[in-house]
Amino acid sequence: MKIWVDADACPGPVRDILLRAVQRVKVPIVFVANKPLALPRLAYVSTVQVGAGLDVADRHIATSAEAGDLAVTQDIPLAALLVPKGVVVMDPRGELFTPETIDERLSMRNFMQELRDSGVNTGGPGGFSPQDRQQFAATLDRELTRLVKQQG
């Protein structure tokens, strides 16, 4: 089991929570980004720097992640590739992408993109709040506990 992080837009508090969690549960984590990352040198932590370009980090994660892994991304198209593979996928606010919800989430994302492309200001997500941090930590703890138990 590995944890994959779409690190280009990962909030700092989420990164810190992940780093503490992998030291506790001793699960490898891979931060994937198209720029150098300043992470502490810790056991279980590695980085992959991919080339520049649209969705290069996403493609790396999509081809590398396997069933039973966990991925953290806010990229819904990436989540739509991972969920059918049996990867547990959550966003930085602690929301899980599941087989039951991913099609609807992708459809809504595409609809909002069409609105933006046609000039409609749809706003963006709010700032990353203490409640978001707490929700992420709780979901991560629950899912890691479940996955580690499944591993035996």
From TrEMBL:
<protein>
    <recommendedName>
        <fullName>UPF0178 protein GTZ93_33025</fullName>
    </recommendedName>
</protein>
<comment type="similarity">
    <text>Belongs to the UPF0178 family.</text>
</comment>
<dbReference type="InterPro" id="IPR003791">
    <property type="entry name" value="UPF0178"/>
</dbReference>
<dbReference type="Pfam" id="PF02639">
    <property type="entry name" value="DUF188"/>
</dbReference>
